[in-house]
């Protein structure tokens, strides 16, 4: 973990203090689509180490502000980060790589889970942690098999791809089968599922193992 930007931390120190002085409870969002260029240049979110670097950053900010901030959001809309940034090229970094986007989904969830593990381990037992998911329900327009299949795909990649690992500790099998047909295998390592699902529970399974 490199040196923190002292001026940046000081700014948020002052901001939190001013909010509290005015009776406003601050709610921190650690990541809103703004990956440092240096990390993108070394692989970005498709690269596993970015998840660990995000957890380093979360731990650093928590150490500075956790005594005054009770509510923490790790990531804002990871679907947008993965799909708009790495699959469709609509947002930064503007890549169009389906495999990279799917790797990004897993590493975003892993980064979220590891960040929550770290923050809870550093005194965050009474804090609230979560992430912001932009979930869009998908219902078939008709009973036509093509409509039903399209709704399943939309629900699988837009909703269950995120909720299942967070709440059930696994990715949906039908989505994994779809990815295998595309020649894509998620880069899931031993222990990843436990880290991700822990973020939605109140019992820490132990310190996460750092693997590359």
Question: Explain this structure to me?
Answer:
By secondary structure, this protein is mainly alpha-helical. It has a single domain (28-198), classed as Alpha-Beta Barrel (TIM Barrel). The protein contains eight helices and three strands; from the N terminus they run αβααβααβααα. It has helices spanning 6-21, 37-41, 49-65, 78-87, 98-121, 145-167, 173-181, 192-198, and strands at residues 27-31, 71-76, 128-132. The chain has a three-stranded parallel beta sheet with strand order 1-2-3, with helices on one face. Helix 3 (49-65) runs parallel beside helix 5 (98-121), helix 4 packs antiparallel against helix 5 (98-121) and helix 5 (98-121) packs across helix 8. It starts with 5 loop residues before the first helix and ends in a 14-residue tail after the last helix. Mean pLDDT is 93; it is low at 203-208.
């Amino acid at each position: 973990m490199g040196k923190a930007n002292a001026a940046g931390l000081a700014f948020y120190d002052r901001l939190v203090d001013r909010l509290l002085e005015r009776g406003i409870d601050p709610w921190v969002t650690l990541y809103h689509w703004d990956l440092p260029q240096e990390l993108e240049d070394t692989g970005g979110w498709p690269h596993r180490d970015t998840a660990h670097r995000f957890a380093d950053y979360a731990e650093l900010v928590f150490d500075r502000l956790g005594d005054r901030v009770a509510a923490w959001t790790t990531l804002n809309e990871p679907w947008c980060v993965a799909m708009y940034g790495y699959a469709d090229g609509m947002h930064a970094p503007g890549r169009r790589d389906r495999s990279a986007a799917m790797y990004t989904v897993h590493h975003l969830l892993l980064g979220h889970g590891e960040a929550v593990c770290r923050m809870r381990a550093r005194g965050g037992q009474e804090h609230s942690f979560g992430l912001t998911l932009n979930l869009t329900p998908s219902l078939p327009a008709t009973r036509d098999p093509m409509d039903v299949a399209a709704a399943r795909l939309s629900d699988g990649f837009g909703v269950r791809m995120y909720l299942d690992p967070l709440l059930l500790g696994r990715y949906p099998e039908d989505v994994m089968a779809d990815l295998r047909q595309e020649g894509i295998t998620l880069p899931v390592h031993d222990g990843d599922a436990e880290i991700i699902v822990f973020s939605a529970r109140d019992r820490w399974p132990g310190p996460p193992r750092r693997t590359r």
